[in-house]
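Quick one, probably user error.
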């Protein structure tokens, strides 16, 4: 695998970095986080105009058809700026499910709208007590009714659920073998109740209740025969995107901390000259590079068999989660009490790290998956 960026990838990186430096500074982010939706519709439109919402989507629906490397470049930059817009949720996780699902008409109608920034999607999969399971259907059921389905159930932790135009909902189809199907429904449809709340990093999620929600036959995006495969593949891409985002966060925390210890003086000299603090910074650097290596390893395994790909993705998530926790904690430690203030960015990185570590499975969950896969090999 060539670890050097191509000319086009370098241009993308420079363009994303320049935009975020100009439009997404720390104070601007604080204002966005305090808004009703917890993200900026104006920034979302900018992302669409810049082509970022269609980076990895195929050209036949208006996307750019890039590799996952380009998405990783984007998400790493988003991590450095702690971007709040649910780009990975809509343009990667949900878009991948639509793109690889069975409903070709929905694919051709909805994906161009996603790319143009006109449609925001959220995956409603998790249920109470599901513990990071993919394809949850124990509490959500779809019953055939006339020319469509009636859906009943409840979903939790739907990222940007209150702002989404459509939801992708996993549900057991009554009368069929156990397993989830994936349905597309309007978030504002009759029978859909949304209870939004603020997450630790300032973004928003929601719990969704479904009571006799009527959908047509064409609402079934992926049948139970393929749903788990498609959901797993899309989730693995989202996990790698979160690893790239974590990498960007670690780099930002190191840069902020390095600048601080070079400028803070104690005993007549900058504290950055103290060997103990230099060792801390070196350890933070090593942890960051370990996470970068695992991200590259995960990207290199995207075309491997599902079991092998799943093991590497879990390893990447566990390594990045542990590294991000260490780097952000050290950033707080080296800043002292100042690092915990609302007006200083390093504490916000720690909050976002804490939230992200639980998304798509925490460290212990992915280590458990690795241990289980080792026993069965």
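Nope, works fine. Designed sequence:
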């Amino acid at each position: 695998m060539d670890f050097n960026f191509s000319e086009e990838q370098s241009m993308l990186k420079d363009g994303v970095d320049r935009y975020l430096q100009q439009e997404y500074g720390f104070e601007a982010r604080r204002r966005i986080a305090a808004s009703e939706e917890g993200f900026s519709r104006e920034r979302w439109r900018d992302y669409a105009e810049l082509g970022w919402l269609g980076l990895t989507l195929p050209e036949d629906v208006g996307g750019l058809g890039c590799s996952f490397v380009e998405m990783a470049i984007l998400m790493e930059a988003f991590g450095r700026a702690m971007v709040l817009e649910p780009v990975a949720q809509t343009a990667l996780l949900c878009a991948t499910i639509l793109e690889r699902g069975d409903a070709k008409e929905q694919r051709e109608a909805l994906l161009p709208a996603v790319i143009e920034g006109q449609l925001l999607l959220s995956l409603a999969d998790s249920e109470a007590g599901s513990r990071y399971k993919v394809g949850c259907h124990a509490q959500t059921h779809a019953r055939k009714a006339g020319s469509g389905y009636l859906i009943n159930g409840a979903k939790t932790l739907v990222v940007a659920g209150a702002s989404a135009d459509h939801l992708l909902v996993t549900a057991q189809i009554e009368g069929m073998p156990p397993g989830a199907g994936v349905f597309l429904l309007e978030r504002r449809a009759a029978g859909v109740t949304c209870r939004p709340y603020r997450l630790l990093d300032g973004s928003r999620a929601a719990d969704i209740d479904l009571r006799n929600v009527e959908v047509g036959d064409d609402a079934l995006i992926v049948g139970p025969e393929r749903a788990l495969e498609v959901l797993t593949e899309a989730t693995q891409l989202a996990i790698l995107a979160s690893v790239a985002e974590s990498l960007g966060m670690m780099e930002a925390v190191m840069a902020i901390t390095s600048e601080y210890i070079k400028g803070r003086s104690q005993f007549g000299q900058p504290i950055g000259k103290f060997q103990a603090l230099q060792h801390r910074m070196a350890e933070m650097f090593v942890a960051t590079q370990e996470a970068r290596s695992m991200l590259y390893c995960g990207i290199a395994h995207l075309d491997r068999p599902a079991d092998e790909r799943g093991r590497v993705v879990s390893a990447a998530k566990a390594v990045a989660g542990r590294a991000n926790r260490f780097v952000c904690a050290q950033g707080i430690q080296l800043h002292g009490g100042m690092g915990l203030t609302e007006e200083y960015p390093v504490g916000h990185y720690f909050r976002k790290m804490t939230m992200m570590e639980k998304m798509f499975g925490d460290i212990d969950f992915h280590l458990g998956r690795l241990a289980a896969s080792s026993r069965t090999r």
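The beta strands are 121-124, 141-145, 148-159, 166-173, 180-186, 192-198, 204-216, 220-222, 265-266, 269-270.
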